[in-house]
Amino acid sequence: MPQESLDPDDWSGLRALAHRMVDDAIDYTATVRDRPVWQSMPDAARAAFAGGLPQQGRGIDAVYDDLTTHMLPYPMGNIHPRFWAWYMGSSNLTGALGDFLAAVLGSNLGGGNHAATLIDAQVVDWCKEMTGFPASSSGTLVSGGSVANLICLTVARNVMSGIDLRQDGLAALDRPMRFYGSDQIHSCHQKAVETLGLGNRALRRVPSHTDCTMDVAALRRAIDQDRADGWHPACVIATAGTVNTGAIDDLTALSVLCREQGLWLHVDGCIGALIALAPRNGAKVQGIGLADSLALDPHKLLHAPFEVGCALVRDRKAHFRTFTLTPEYLAHTVRGVAAGDWLFDYGLQTSRGFRALKVWMAVQEQGAAKFGRLIDQTIDLAAHLAAAIDANPVLERTAPVTLNIVCFRFDPGGQPPDGLERLNIEIMLRLQEQGIAVISDTRVKGQHCLRVAIANHRTQTRDLDLLLAQVQRIGREVMAETGGLLEQPA
Predict the structure, then answer these.
(1) DSSP 336
(2) How far apart are CA 352 and CA 341, in angstroms?
(3) Where on the phi/psi map is residue 194: left (φ > 0), alpha (ψ -120 to 50), or beta?
(4) Comparing C-alpha atoms, which of 128, 100, 268, 133 is closest to residue 189?
(5) What is the pLDDT of residues 81-92, one digit of tens each?
(6) Tens-digit pLDDT profile for residues 459-484
(7) Is residue 17 exposed (0-12), middle (13-18) or buried (19+ Cβ within 10 Å)?
(8) Rounded mean pLDDT of the chain?
(9) Which of 246, 243, 257, 276 lies closest to 215, judged by CA?
(10) 138-159 as b/e, with b when 16 or more CB fall inside 10 Å?
(11) b/e string for 333-371 if b means 16 or more Cβ within 10 A?
C-alpha cells in the first residue's frame, strides 16, 4: 500500500490558490468600508456548515469556494470602521501574515531551543517596556485577558496563602482568603476565583464612585472589617479601563494601600494598560508599573488578530514556582532542541501556539510610537462623540468619558424607564441588522444605555457622525411605529 501525507500532489496548484487567497484577503480588507458591518446569515449559508463529518476529501479549491460564498460575507465585523461593540481590536494584515507564517512553521511554543521562543520572549519584554514593568519581571503570552488575569491571580493566591499551596491545597489554609475589586470589575475575575477554588464569596466587590472608579476609602474599611471577621485579605484587583466605561482606578493610591496592608496588587489592564504608549494620554494610567502583576491584551490596542493576551508578574521566582513542573520526558539538555527554556513553566499550557509573531511583525513594521498615536486618536474620537451627544437634546450621555468608551441613550422624552430601554435596544438591533454600525448595550450604575467602544484604528469622525444621525433616524421610526410609547409586552 502506498504511503500518504497531507502535502499536495500538485504544488503549483496550491501555490496558485494561495496567491488567490492573499489577493482576496487584501481586497477584502481594502474594501471593508464598502460592505455592511454585519449581516444576518441566510439559511443557505447556515446549512453549509451543518453537514456531517466528510469521509472523503473534495479538494482545496472547492473548500475555499464554499468559504468565499458562505463565510466571508458574514463576519462578526470587528475589522470594519463602524464596529464598536464590547471592546475589540480591529486586526491588521501584517499580523494576519504573521499568523500565516506561524502556522506554516507549526511550532509548539511550550519552549525549546528554536527562534520562535526568542521572538515570544522579546514580545513579552516589549510588553514590560510599554507598561513600565521592570525588566527583571516575568511574563507569558496567553489567549487573552481572561486567562492572563487567571495566571496572575493564581500566582497571587499561591504567594499570599502563606503555605505550600501546591502541595497541601486550599484545605490547609487557616483562614479563608479574600480578594477585592470594585463593583465595575470584569466578570472574568469571578470565574478566576471560582476556578482557583476560592469561591465567589472570596471576591468582595468594593463600591465605586460616580465616575466608576474604586472607592479607596471603602476598600480600606472592607479590609479592616474582613480581618476582624476572620478573613485573610490577600489581593486587590485594580482596573485600568473598566469594561463598561473605561474608568481607571487610582493605581498609585492602591499601590500605597497594598504596601501598607501587605496585600498583592493586581491590575487588570486589558482595556487600558497600553494607554501608557499614548503621548497625550499615557498619564491616565500612571502607577501601572507599580503593580505586582498585570494583565493586558495586545489583540485590543495593538490590533493583533485574535487571539493574544499577556500576563506580567513582578516576582519572576514566584511566577516560576507557581507553575513549573518538569517530568522526565521534558528534561532539559545541554545541547539540541531541549536546551532552551520551557515557556510552559510560566503558565498552564504545555502546548502553546506561536502567538508572538503577529505582534512582533506589526510592531516592527509600524513602531510603538505609531500605536501610541492611534490610541490618542481613538480617545479624541470618543471626545468628539461625547461632545456631539451633549449638544443634542434627544441624546443623553450616561457616564463620564475617560478613555475611548462612550455610553449614551436616545431619549426623546415621555418614556418610562422600561420603555426607554426597549427603545434603545431596538435602535441597537436595527443598526446591526441594517449593516450600519455594531454597538452594544450595558448597565452603568443600574441605568441601561448604549455603549460605543472605539478601539478601532479605522474609525473616522464621519463614522461617528453617521452613527448619531442613524440613531436618531431609527429612534424616530420606532417611535412612529409604536405610537410614541413602547409598552411592556403582554
Answers:
(1) S
(2) 14
(3) alpha
(4) 268
(5) 999 999 999 999
(6) 999 999 999 999 999 999 999 998 86
(7) middle
(8) 96
(9) 257
(10) bbbbbbbbbbbbbbbbbbbbbb
(11) eeeeeeebebbbbbbebeebbbbbbbbbbbbeebeeeeb
Q: Is 407 helix (H, G, I), strand (E, B) or coil?
A: strand
Alpha-carbon distance 158 to 151, whole Å?
11
Which strands make up the sheet holding 293-296, listed edge to edge? 138-142, 309-313, 293-296, 264-268, 232-239, 177-182, 203-206
Look at the block and give the residue holding cell 522526565.
Answer: 328
Look at residue 81 in the predicted model and tell me its pLDDT: 98
Instruction: Return the closest-CA partner of residue 149 out of 194, 183, 119.
Output: 194
Which residues does residue 313 pair with via DSSP β-bridges, in sequence order? 138, 293
Return the C-alpha cell found at 447.
Answer: 441605568
Q: Mean pLDDT, to the nearest integer, of 53-76?
A: 96
| Alpha-carbon gap, residue 158 to 164, rounded angstroms | 8
- What letter would DSSP give residue 398? -
Residues 368-381: pLDDT tens digits?
999 999 999 999 99
Rounded Cα distance, 388 and 410, in Å: 13
Residue 333: which pLDDT band, with cuts at 50, 70 and 90?
A: very high
Question: For 302-314, how does the pLDDT look when each residue is reduced to its tens digit (9 = 90+)?
Answer: 999 999 999 999 9
Cis peptide before 307 (omega within 30 of 0): yes
8 A C-beta contact, residue 407 and residue 244: yes
Listed residue (255, 292, 295, 293) closest to 273, CA to CA: 295
Q: Report how far residue 395's alpha carbon sits from residue 452's, in angstroms, rounded to the nearest whole number.
A: 14
Give me the half-sphere count of Cα atoms (radius 13 Å) on the Cβ side of residue 79: 21
CA distance 357 to 353: 10
- Cα angle for residues 167, 263, 285 (degrees, 5° grid): 120
Least confident window among 138-152, 228-242, 251-265, 328-342 = 328-342
The pLDDT of residue 490 is 44
Neighbours of 448 (CB within 10 A): 18
What are residue 140's phi and psi, to 5 degrees? -150, 145
- For the chain, how long is the longest CA-to-CA vector? 79
Global pTM value: 0.96
